[in-house]
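Exam prep: given the inputs below (a chain plus flavin mononucleotide), describe the expected output before reading on.
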Amino acid sequence: MAKIQMIVGSVMGTAERVANYLCEQYSAHHSLNVNMHANAADLLRDESEFLLFCTSNTGHGDLPDNILPLFQQLTDNSPDIAGRHYALINIGDSSYPTFGEAGLLLKKALDDADALELMPSLLIDTSIERYPQKTARDWFQNQLNTALSKTSV
Ligand SMILES: Cc1cc2nc3c(=O)[nH]c(=O)nc-3n(C[C@H](O)[C@H](O)[C@H](O)COP(=O)(O)O)c2cc1C
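Solution:
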C-alpha cells in the first residue's frame, strides 16, 4: 500500500479522467488522491507520499493552466523535493509538432529539483490510443505497482 498524490494538468478533461479512473481502480490497494490545483506546498505536505503527475499538453508544447502555478513554483522557488520519488503520465497527440513537450518540461523541472523518477514516463498518444485510461491502467498495473513494491516510498 502506497500513499499516492496524483497531480493533474488538464484542459478538456482527458488527463483528469485518467487520474480519476486510476483512483477508482486502485483505491483498494493504495491510498490515492487527485489534486487538480497543486502548489509547491502540496509537494511538501507529506514526505511519505509518492508523486504521480498526470498531465496533458496544450498550446505549442505548453502545460495546462491548472498545473502552471506548480511548475512556476518548481522552477522559481526550488522547493526541497530532493530524493522524492515520482512518476509521470504525459498525454499528448503526435499530430502536433510539439508532441509531449510539456510533459518533458515538467520532467526537467522535477529532475532539476533532484526528485527521482521511479520509472520511465508513460507517453500516451491520443491520436492512436482510443482508451487512454486503459493504457494508463495497464502501465500502473504492470510497471508502476511493481516499481512501488520494490521501493520504500
Ligand atoms: C489547442 C490544443 C493544443 C494542443 N497542443 C499539443 C501539443 O503541443 N503537444 C501535444 O503533444 N499535444 C497537444 N494537444 C493534444 C492534447 O494534449 C490531447 O488532446 C490531450 O488528450 C488533451 O488532454 P486534456 O483533455 O486533459 O487537456 C493539443 C490539443 C489542443 C486542443
